[in-house]
Amino acid sequence: MKKVVVGLSGGVDSSVTAYLLKEQGYEVIGLFMKNWHDDSVTISEECPWLEDSNDALIVAEKLGIPFQTVDLSEQYKERIVDYMFAEYEKGRTPNPDVLCNREIKFDVFLKIALQLGADYVATGHYCRKATSVDANGKEIYSLLAGVDGNKDQSYFLCQLSQEQLSKTLFPIGELTKPEVRKIAAENNLITADKKDSQGLCFIGKVRLPEFLQQKLKPKKGVIVEVPSTVDQYRQEVPVFASKEEELAFNASKPVYHVEDGQVVGEHQGAHYFTKGQRKGLDVGGTKEPLFVIETDVEENVIYTGQGKAHPGLYRKTLFVSDDELHWVRTDLALQPDEHMEVMARIRYRQPLQKATLYKIEGGLYVDFEEKQSAITEGQFVAWYQGDELLGSGVIA
Fold it and tell me: Which terminus of the chain has a lower count of CB atoms within 10 Å, N or C?
């Protein structure tokens, strides 16, 4: 009998995952991960991890499976929290959920599961895995979008490797959320009607500015409003000698100066803000709402523009350096001078966009057919063909 360790989070998705695997004849062990927790930044009196671990225990008892809690707070702080602080300090915007899956669930947690003699780990992610065999008889694992388009979580797993996928099961990927809740209700699982968790992966509900302020000290600076007429590149679009030159130009960040606009307010630190952000600026009196179009953490200036259509929010091309480039399907990885038509997204909920990948020495350009709003350094871009997520990278 194959043994599988389920990451029981105390939510309905992982509860049904454990139930389905038991039904399929696996020997199932429930493991709750206690990750980094700091009461000083969680909202309200809730203690999410205590409540969640209790629910996970009740589910395990109901299913008649062994259950234990593992404390991964040290690794979580080191690999996720410290990384987030460092990235925000540089004016970048990391994605903690993608990192949490790469560094914690499918690395630290997976290793613990294998030490317990498990053949697989399973999570309650809405995605699927497929297996094929190449010409040499080697198994190739594909990461596919979940059947429920509204809940598809393949983006969050965009950094997984072939080795990690080989040891992973996603039992609810073929189901929709209502079907999952129905199974939980029919089997009297306490989590059947439990709301989906919000907030940072495993930290609970957190006020992000306060969370960041613990390490990143407030630092007063100005908010500048840039009119939409300002030519962000201060030049005519040049004639390009090569495709690579054109891609480099389209991927370059606009450079703004305080004199390009007018000072309309103050902020407590450019590192607390991210491109495309609207909330927290506290500047009134504009015809349309202000959006952050660029942050300068060196000079501690936030540049803003009126309305969602402000040209400063849009770029057509982004770059991923080789050291931040990851192929789930290593057999399909592009070599320099090769290109590939894909569908891509730069954030979790974004509908897939048509794009072309161009591999050069040192990295990869993702060239979108349409300009994209708020391409943000530090976030992940992921690319697909059909239902399959082929690879991803951190936006430079």
Answer: N
